[in-house]
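Please, structure for the following, as tokens.
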Amino acid sequence: MKKILVLIVFISIGFCVKAQWWKPQHKEFDTVEYVVMYDLKFKEDTIHLNYCQTEKQMLSIGSSRKITSYRAYNSYKLDMELKRRGEDGTSLDWIQSANFSMDYVATHLFDIFKDYDKGIITTNDHIFQMGLYEYEEPFDSFNWQITAETDTISDYICQKAICYFGGRTWLAWFTTEIPISDGPYKFCGLPGLILNIADTENHYSFEFVSIEEPSELMMVYDVIKDRVPTTKKEFFRQQDRLKNNISHGVKEMTSNEKAVQKAVEYEMSKNNPIELDR
């Protein structure tokens, strides 16, 4: 599985080099006050539900509490490495040398921003060989039902809340001891930070790891790229369309037939996305 992921990342990087994404510019919104780390445990393949993957993801909370960002931790590390190498002019050489490792491989490539002044959730994501996309959703996408049930998670007293979103019923545990109305992925709108949240089938489970002040200056940032404004429904439609044409796109990047087959099989096995409503 790791070899397949590395292949797909190299293919994606190849696309990015063609688009000169290897020398990114960063738009900085705010200094980071807190970094919240989560482990996302997920089952993308309904045929093999005994196989569960884990990805470390991070929520960066701005000091003004007006904007936050959420992305895979490996995506953050890749952005910072490309930024550093872009500043000293070695980005392209580094990418072309294939001096790459699993430290930079992310399964989920979205960047999610929550703007509290506007009440808007913005998702940036890309579709292989089709381009970069951006769509918006309102904060009130979550119709939370707060229950009286409580529990303790990492020494924080938490309360249970339920919502239906993206074709799944989600059970969340939030704590008013951290009065930040945010959480992993797109989830927000409760009177405290969401520590744990999982769907009722336990196919996707976001589990709290830590909350810390950054040890050095960090920014809530966005990598400046040309994006196609779209709607969530249209983005998902294009994403699903890609799955039916993935082999053609991969063949343009590599002549290794076995590698193409493995990459296609891996992509086709991902039949259980976070959001089922397409």
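The two ends are 26 Å apart (CA to CA). The longest helix spans residues 2-18.
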